[in-house]
Amino acid sequence: MVNSNRDHFQHAIEHMTEIHRKWPGIFDEMVTRRIPINEFKAALNNPPPLPSIQRFP
Fold first, then answer.
1. Which of 10, 49, 50, 55 is deepest in the core (most CB within 10 A)?
2. What is the pLDDT of residues 1-57, one digit of tens each?
3. What is the DSSP string of 4-26?
4. In the chain, what percentage of residues exceed pLDDT 70?
5. Checking DSSP bridges between strand 33-36 and strand 52-55, what pairing results, if any?
6. Residue 37 · residue 55 · CB < 8 Å
7. CA distance 55 to 4
């Protein structure tokens, strides 16, 4: 969940694009676990290590 306005979101996209260009694959290395959306309740009860992302089909 992101709590920011549209300008913040746009700046984040721009920064993430630049980071990805400079260091390809860095975001894949930063994510410790991907959780399928149908397992979100279990993840809430047993939080995974951070950073994790919710995976949508």
1. 55
2. 456 788 988 998 999 999 999 999 888 887 777 778 888 787 777 766 665 555 665
3. S-HHHHHHHHHHHHHHHHHSTTH
4. 75
5. parallel
6. yes
7. 21
